[in-house]
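Please, structure for the following, as tokens.
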Amino acid sequence: IKEVNHTNPLGMKGEMASAYSNLLIELWSVRTSVATPRDFKNVISKYAPQFTGYAQHDSHELLAFLLDGLHEDLNRIKKKPYVEQKDSNGRPDDEVAAEAWNDYRSRNDSIIVDFFQGQLKSRLKCPINERVSNQFDPFMYLSVPIPIKTTRTVIVTFYPINTEIAPKKYGVDVVKTGTVWDLKVSLSNIIGGGLLPQSLVSLDVFCCRFHREFKNNEDVGDIRDNDNVAVYEVVHCYDDIPKFILNRMQNPPEYAPPSHLRLPVLIREQDSVSRTSIGIPFVVSVEKDITYRELYNYILKYMKARLHIKPNVELPQQDIFKLRVESQNYYYNPPPIVDNDAPLGIGERGNTLIVEFPKHNIQTYYQQDTEEGLEVDPSAKRNYGSTGKDTLSLYDCLNLFSCEEQLSADDAWYCPECKEFRQAHKKFDIWSAPQILVVQLKRFSLVRTWRERLDNLITFPLDNLDLRKFVIGPSKDEEPPIYDLYAVSNHYGNMGGGHYTAYARHRTNNKWYKYDDSSVSEANPSDIVSSAAYVLFYRRKDVSWGPFDTSLDRVAPPEEEKEDDDDDDDESDDEVMTDTKSEATDGANGEADAAGNIGAAGADGGAAGPTGADTPAHSRDGA
């Protein structure tokens, strides 16, 4: 606290350091069991309005703000010199890295830099002339990506137009950012036999009817994992081919009006007041000038082949069901189709064909369960009973972090030799590792319209995290980058919100404790590694905890302060009790949630800094 810089224009006039110091004193004192960090939160909200209120915020974003704010408030450099960034120009990495680090330390010198900051090497390589530019930058934490598949598997049931071929379930791999048209192309490639993607209609089957059609230009992300997707082969027409595909064709077909009708078919009980569908719906393609008798025979043949009609049951001479066309207007129930030799003239798409069975005929002839004739492709079997989430390790994430990638056109690099912007190849490496290593697992993914929280289980060592493979800088004068875990910030929930808890290891007894709001309990080490782990805190093995001020850990205050302190404690207890009671009632008081996390994380002795400070602006039920 003696190093507080009150004049740093990039700092917070020492208010952040002072508020955090007072919070640590309150956390370490045993005079109260729960800390309510109102003053600390007010300082944060004052300088970072995005943390105002009690909406939920990202714990890593708050941690980054806290560390940066403490660094500027504790910066020992009162007057920062001007430093010009220099290019590597082919010089040795050791020389460029040392120069960059010295330039940085000439402007930034604090206890945060001493313990939390390391150095990254960023390499850019021109794809044309292979010119290499190396840059060395400080880092306060590592945000490592989680290796995930760029594709997803959509389970579909394919119904060929030829009823002699049994329907079959497939698992179709398609890029997450693709469209339904991409799904149809992938499925047609799997099936083969000249099947065209434009002859496929994809529908969502729900409650014995079609809930919606997945159209060609829609994102495949609109298909949920639990959707029952049925894909029917139909007689296609010109309008079934997307315009962007027609534009790519060297000899596109000429426009021709549709020759067939595409009819969704629902099964119902005749004279049913509720008009509730039963069984499994289906889609047929019939000629536009079809008559009633031809349509009846076609539907009957289809239902027998697809096992909608019970096998080995002799059918009577008279019709066992009637046909009715239903328009999109739910409140209009049209009469049955007239049985004569004239074309039906059903009309444009949008109509649904209703097959109505008398009640006694349903029991005698209709079979609602038609799954017996369904075949299952191995591509679909491997997805049964599996969430598709891979178990990965922290080393896998670090490997991906260090992988070379090519920049996109939007992020092109200006090559000083080519004098043009190039999609350079970029690679990150850890040049030097800090004494305290903070690792964020990038669990929140956003690619175009595909948004998800990655809940893969990432395994990480509680002891002996070995980064010697990843740290490429000179190590002769430094301790080996081998770390022990001392705290974890956990996030439970999804993209919309959730709840934060923490695990921390006690500095003296080496036991793990769980901190959940105002609740503190001993934790089993086997529980620390979970799919909720979000931010990890590691301490290098040669770094020991600083001396502990035992005056903070007093059981009782001095006699002269006892009376006043007792009054204050009663007042504080009343406040906390009120906050906790309110939160238990309606979940609306985010401050009680924050107090619990702060108090819990700070009470362990060693994790109070990073973990205790990552949740003051978090509300349990925040958006």
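The CA atoms of residues 327 and 351 lie 5 Å apart. Residues 383-388, 555-623 have pLDDT under 50 and may be disordered.
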